[in-house]
């Protein structure tokens, strides 16, 4: 199975970095293989239809936006 | 009038007079009282208000705002946008996605600008500091003038039909997205209260951590001015008799985006010594509405011509508000 692709969409605010850290925590707790990327280009963010950052996308699909979510919540979003 | 900050005042007075044995009239005593009164008061307000605002903001996600403003015509749309801008979260880092998202959904350009001006200007840090340092009335006046400015500037931009000066890829995105669904819009509708409070708590701790040092430093400098700088000095340089004080305050305010928390306490001391409040209002608006980082970010979607018009309108508006307020103040009893 290929690795899950997790994207953090946020233009460098503090919450965005915290979200990335939370995502990494969730990935290591679940013990899954995942690639975590941080997208900071605001135009790319807008293209995804996101109005408020930070947002979280799993395999290209936006699953959370405009708020910081905890590692536990991210784990739930990552669970198949 | 009932003063919610009385306990802070009482405590500061006790410490200065009873424990340290200083008179409140002495230089050192009056400086220390200023410091011991303002620091706990302002920091308490920072925590309480940013928690309340953070929790409340989870109800007003930008998607809801966009839905509210979609297809609204001028003037009514401008008024609505500026009013909603008071209550919504704003971070200059999401200005571009917001701008594109609004236009994409068919929110008119002028209405989008009304929102873009009001949202950062009426932010919780500015409101908290104005309230804590200058009182509730001054805060309401600030919000009122800010909203009026957002409505008028947005309305003018709408009338000028400047859509041609928005970068063209924005309109191409609008075409591309028109037929897509809005499945993203429902993501936030099912937050629990626990999650909302969690957002509020995070907001409060983030704001507290980013401003407390500036607040303490600013109040310390303010305390020094309060106790030691003679009133005549301030009235000569920053008083109503110096017609250049307002524009100067605006020019000084623009690069100070992050440091408003440190600078406003200094202005409090200056106001106590005779600097007119209108100058402070202009200054605060310049810091919040004309932030340099936001302008740099907006350049990605706005051609320079539109950016210049936007900045000029807001600058002229802010300076006019300062003069108007100082004039009103000079002809009527003081506000606070």
From TrEMBL, chain A:
Q: What name does the UniProt record give this protein? A: Thioredoxin family protein
Q: Where is the Thioredoxin-like fold domain?
A: 5-78
Organism, by scientific name, is Planktothricoides sp. SpSt-374
Any S-S bridges, and between which cysteines? 13-16
Q: Which UniProt keywords apply?
A: Disulfide bond, Redox-active center
Is Lipid metabolism one of the keywords?
Answer: no
Q: Which InterPro entries match?
A: Thioredoxin-like_fold, Thioredoxin-like_sf, THIRX-like_proc
KW Flavoprotein (keyword) present = no
Residue positions of the active site: 13 (nucleophile), 16 (nucleophile)
Specify the superkingdom.
Bacteria
Pfam families annotated for this entry? Answer: Thioredoxin_3
From TrEMBL, chain B:
Record bears the keyword Secreted: no
Q: Where in the cell is it found?
A: Cell membrane
Q: Pfam family example for this protein?
A: ArsP_1
List the transmembrane segments.
34-54, 75-100, 112-133, 140-160, 211-229, 241-260, 280-299, 306-329
The chain's coiled-coil residues are: none
Assigned keywords, A-Z: Cell membrane, Membrane, Transmembrane, Transmembrane helix
Kindly give the membrane topology term recorded for this protein.
Multi-pass membrane protein
A Gene Ontology cellular-component term: plasma membrane
Similarity-based family: Belongs to the UPF0718 family.
Protein name per its UniProtKB record: Permease
* Protein source organism: Planktothricoides sp. SpSt-374
């Amino acid at each position: 199975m290929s690795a899950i692709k997790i994207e953090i969409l946020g233009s460098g605010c503090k919450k965005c970095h915290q979200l990335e850290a939370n995502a990494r925590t969730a990935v290591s707790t679940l013990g899954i293989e995942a690639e975590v990327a941080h997208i900071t280009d605001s135009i790319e963010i807008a293209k995804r239809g996101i109005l408020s950052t930070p947002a979280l996308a799993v395999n290209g699909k936006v699953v959370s936006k405009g708020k910081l979510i905890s590692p536990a919540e991210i784990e739930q979003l990552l669970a198949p | 009038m009932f003063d919610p900050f009385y306990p802070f005042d009482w405590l500061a007075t006790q410490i200065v007079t009873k424990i340290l044995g200083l008179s409140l009239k002495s230089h050192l005593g009056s400086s220390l009282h200023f410091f011991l009164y303002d620091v706990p008061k302002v920091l308490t307000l920072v925590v309480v208000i940013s928690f309340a605002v953070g929790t409340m903001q989870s109800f007003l996600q930008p998607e809801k705002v966009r839905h509210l403003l979609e297809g609204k015509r001028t003037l009514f749309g401008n008024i609505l946008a500026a009013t909603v801008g008071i209550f919504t979260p704003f971070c200059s880092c999401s200005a571009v996605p917001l701008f594109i998202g609004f236009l994409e959904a068919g929110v008119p350009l002028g209405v989008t600008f009304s929102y873009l001006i009001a949202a950062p200007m009426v932010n919780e840090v500015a409101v908290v500091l104005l309230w804590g340092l200058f009182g509730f009335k001054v805060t309401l006046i600030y919000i009122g003038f800010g909203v009026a400015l957002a409505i008028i500037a947005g309305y003018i931009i709408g009338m000028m039909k400047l859509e041609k000066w928005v970068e063209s890829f924005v309109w191409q995105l609008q075409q591309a997205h028109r037929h897509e669904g809005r499945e993203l819009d429902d993501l936030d509708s099912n937050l629990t209260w626990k999650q909302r409070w969690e957002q509020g708590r995070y907001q409060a701790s983030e704001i507290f951590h980013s401003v407390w040092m500036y607040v303490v430093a600013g109040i310390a400098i303010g305390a020094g001015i309060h106790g030691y700088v003679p009133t005549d000095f301030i009235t000569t340089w920053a008083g109503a008799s110096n017609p250049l004080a307002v524009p100067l305050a605006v020019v000084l305010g623009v690069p100070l985006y992050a440091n408003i928390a440190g600078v406003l306490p200094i202005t409090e001391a200056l106001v106590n010594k005779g600097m007119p409040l209108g100058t402070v209002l202009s200054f605060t608006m310049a810091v919040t509405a004309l932030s340099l980082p936001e302008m740099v970010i907006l350049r990605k979607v706005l051609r320079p011509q539109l950016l210049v018009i936007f900045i000029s309108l807001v600058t002229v508006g802010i300076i006019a508000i300062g003069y108007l307020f100082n004039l009103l103040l000079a002809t009527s009893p003081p506000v606070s």
